[in-house]
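Hello,

Our lab assistant flagged a job as stuck in the queue for most of the afternoon. It eventually completed. Since we weren't sure the result was trustworthy after the delay, we are filing this so someone can double-check. Below is the sequence as submitted and the structure that was eventually returned. Let us know if re-running is recommended.
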Amino acid sequence: MTRRVWPAVLVASGLLALAAFWWLASGNTGETGAVDAGLLVALPGSASLLPAAAPLPLAAPQDASAPVDPFLTPEIRQTIEAMLLEALGGNEMGDAALLKKSLMALISRHFPAEFATRAGALVERYVDYRVALGKLTPPANPGEAGELRAALDARQKVREQYFTAEEDQALFGVDARLDRYTLARLEIEQNLQLTPTQKQSALKAAENELGDKQRQQRAQAVEHMAVAAQTSAFDAAGVSDADRYAQRRSQYGETAASQLAQLDREEGDWQSRLGTYAAAQVAGGRPEQLQQLRAQLFTEQEQLRIEAALASRVAAAPMPVTASPPR
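-- returned structure --
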């Protein structure tokens, strides 16, 4: 059995992952607030963009004149995420206490001795944060600005429970403007009170608030979303593997096309095994038979996802069409 891993070409950062959902894109995937408040207030000659919505909370900006904390570097979150990947070994997060114990054994390999105590405390709170984040209810429609704002508000409240303002800034501040840009863009595009010209002006002003790194991240995010949409379209149209590969190679190059082809194969294998198990359920297999089949078809980690995956299949299934009764 192969382990299902998203290739690098599909790993989005910042709010893309949230839009796809939650570790926006993303748990990890790099989450990542800030188009100037003026963009979210009004445009010349237009009604207020957000007449009732308060700006999302932000981590306190760092004072340029204040001494730099050598522990809270811009790379600290990447370091902690690397430790998580190492501790999990490619598996999903299980028991938090055991995970923390594994992470503590890695502290000395990732942090200088003088920061060991602070790092240990921060890493433990980061695990708790990840657990708490996983309990939040995903927005039903993350493409709707109001729901996305509520989701970001909820996420920020969780962060404030576990991190100081300085830690929040170090961990999540790098991609903050990309989050704000994404939200601002949705709010501008969905504001029916703005003319097309006003929307274009506001969108341009919003993008100007991004730095070079954020512009690059946004370009990558757009490409990732295009790849996902293309795959869905291929699936719906029944495009052959050869045609998929040829089209992807011409658009994204040989390496990305090969990675996406491998992902298609792994997804197909996963869906096939799910179908076999679902058919056994429908056939009325005894509990002990179903448990044996689960063990045969799925790894221990995959078994944790079976019920959610089956529920998704049911939700995605087309509604049956029934004839109207004669009048």
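-- support follow-up --
The delay was a queue issue, not a problem with the job. The result is valid. The longest helix spans residues 254-282. Residues 9-218 form one domain.
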